[in-house]
Amino acid sequence: MALVNRVSGFSSCSVSSHFGKAKTFGLNPICSLNCTSSSSSYSSSPFTEKHSIERYQRDSWVYNTQVEDASLCNLPFDSNSVRENDIALQLPELKKMLGVLREKRESGGCDGGGGSCGPGNVYLVGTGPGDPELLTLKAVRVIQSAHLLLYDRLVSNDVLELVGPDARLLYVGKTAGYHSRTQEEIHELLLSFAEAGATVVRLKGGDPLVFGRGGEEMDFLQNQGIQVKVIPGITAASGIAAELGIPLTHRGIANSVRFLTGHSRKGGTDPLFVAENAADPDSTLVVYMGLSTLPSLALKLMHHGLPSNTPAVAVERGTTPQQRLVFTELKNLADEISSAELVSPTLIVIGKVVALSPFWPHSSIEASLLVEAK
Q1: CB 233, CB 204: distance < 8 Å
Q2: Strand 311-316's sheet: what is its strand order?
Q3: CA distances from 310 to 261, 299, 327 (A)
C-alpha cells in the first residue's frame, strides 16, 4: 500500500518495503509509504463543503435578510434543519433578484429599445477535478460574465474566485445524506432565472455530462425552450490519471476504458450487476463515487474473473494540494482504503495500466514486464 498526500510531495515520504511472495506482474509485495499529515490538510480543503464558514461568508448575500439574524451565517446549522434554514433564508433574496431581472426585462432594459426580450442562456460548465489551471479558456470567460452561478460541492474555491464581482453565487451541492437542493428544485431555479433573461452558469466538478446530471438539466431546459450550452471539463478519470502518469489505454495492455458509477439513482439498476461485463483484464475500470460499494464490487469483479492481484489506486481530492492516494492490488483495495480513511471525493482506477505509473511500487520492474508481455 502506498499513501501519499500529493504527488509533488512524494520525495518527502519515507519508504519501507515488506517483501513476500512475488506477484504475477513480477512485483514483490506492496510498498508502504508513510507520510506525515496534519489536520490542516483537511481544514484547508479546496472544495466547497456544506458547513464551511467560508462558504457562508462568500454567499452572504443569500442570507442577509431583514428578518433573520445575520450571525447565522457564521455558525454551523443543526444537521437536521440545515436544509429548511437554507431555503427560508435564500428565498427572499432569490425572489428579489428575480424581481429586478423581470422589471428590467419588462422595461426593455435588456436591449434599450423597449421591445420584447428573449430568455437568457444557461451554460453547463465543467470545472475539472479540482485544479483551477485545468479549466478551459471558454469556461473562464463564461464564469466571469455570468449573472448567477449555481455551483456544486466539488467546485473548488479557487474556481469560485474567478466569478465576476457583480455576479451571485448559489450553492446547490449534494453529498451523502444531504442535498441542499433537490434536482427538481435546481431545474426550476435554472428555468426561472433564464426566463427572466439572466445568463445562468451551472458549475459542476469534472465534466457536466459524465455522472454530473448535465443531461437531465439540459433535457429539462430544452423542453422549456431554453437554450443550453455545454462547456466540457476534464473529467476526474482523465485529470487524475494524467496527474499520476497512468495511461487509461495502452497498446497491448488495455484496449478500452470503462467509467462506472458506484451508486445509481433510487430504483435504478444496481451498478454492481455490471461486474460480470466489467471484469475484463484487458480493460481499465474507473469507478466514480464508489467508496461505499467498493467492497462488494471488488468481490464481484474477482468472482467474475478479474485477477485478484490487478493493480489499483484510490485517489482522494485528486489534482489538488490535499490529494491523498492508495496504491495496492484489487484484493486489498477495500481494506487499504478503509485503513487510510479516504473520504469523498475519491476516484478508483483498476487495471494493469495502474502499474505503469511512476508512483506504483517497483514500477520500473512492473512496466518492463507489461511491455514485454504485450
Answers
A1: yes
A2: 14-17, 31-34, 2-4, 324-329, 311-316, 346-350, 283-288, 256-261
A3: 20, 13, 11
Residue 136 grid cell: 478551459
Indicate which residue of 59, 86, 131, 152 is catalytic.
152
User: 59-82, pLDDT tens digit by residue?
Assistant: 555 555 433 443 333 434 443 344
Q: What angle do CA 179, 185, 191 make, to 5 degrees?
A: 140
Q: pTM of the full predicted structure?
A: 0.75
- The answer to whether the CB of 304 falls within 8 A of the CB of 276 is yes
300 a catalytic residue: no
- Please give the distance of CA 121 from its chain centroid, rounded to a whole number: 24
Q: Which of 174, 280, 302, 335 is catalytic?
A: 174
The x, y and z cell numbers of residue 304, run together, are 467474475
* Mean pLDDT of the chain, nearest integer: 76
What DSSP string runs through 119-158?
Answer: ---EEEEE-BSS-GGGS-HHHHHHHHH-SEEEE-TTSBHH
Whether 174 is a known active-site residue: answer yes
Question: One of 86, 218, 289, 352 is an active-site residue; which one?
Answer: 289
Backbone torsions φ then ψ of 324, nearest 5 degrees? -130, 150
Work out the average pLDDT over 354-370.
72
pLDDT at residue 175 in the model: 63
